[in-house]
Amino acid sequence: SKLTSLGQLEMTWRSRLHFHPLLVRVLHKSRLRYYGKPEKKLDMPYQAYFEVADGSGMMSMVLWNSLCPEWYNSMKVGTVLLLEQYAIKTSYPFKTQPTPGDSQMKRFATIEISLNVRDPPTKISIIPEEMVKPEWGLPEVKYRFITRSELDDLPNNHSCDIIGLVTFVGRAERARKREHGEDFWLYRWAHAIDGTSNQPFILELFATSQPDVFEHIHPMTYLVCTQMRVVREFTDNPSRTVYLTTSNESQIFITGWHKGQPYTKDTKVKNFIQWTKTQSEADQMKKTVIGGYYPFPRPPDSFLKY
Fold it and tell me: What local confidence, expressed as pLDDT, does residue 78 receive?
């Protein structure tokens, strides 16, 4: 069929009512958002953002309401989509922005693709990877993997991806989203090592829309976390208080979930796998810890400093 591109959409969207089909690859995926309120009678008040791209650049795509339970889990990072009968809206200005793996990619930030059950009823097709043709010019998924030895030089709020062997995982904890609200964030602390430093990655992992992964993070699993943000506490000892926290677009993968993921081709991921082959499983098992209370960042040594 006659296709359009994201670049053409941005130039012509105001003058059209109907748009030609789009062929795009998913590069980023946000967590699922529930926006239900008692007074609003919506059956499925869900929303999820994706960043999708073709040869011309990258644009946000929003999945609405009952399409979320139907499609959210199938639309993985790397999935190729054929979209028909979608709507185009001006962008929501306050949403979070993932950091693209390819810094050269053009970003279309003024508009977004809106996928709905009606007005118009969107038709979504997933194209299997083996049927994707090189001449379609779809970009590959790119990552920003760092090693633990590189972390100490990175600035606050820097975006990165990591892979490591889990040595500690804490219990799930809750924090209030707002001071007097009834909603909570669920999170847990974890440590992961990659052989490049004596220090582990300290990870603050909030529950993303992957409960089956979040609940099964165990010591000795290979953990991949994407779109993590560097958090630096400015104290006397900066190396002690640098950790990584999840963002709205973070994805978490553990042993058993890695097969077929785009990051398996990344050089730093391959180097990590080579390093794990040189390690004794029994020795690493002795150093692992699970559960317990983990106060972090740690309080100062004395009341005077506090």
Answer: 96
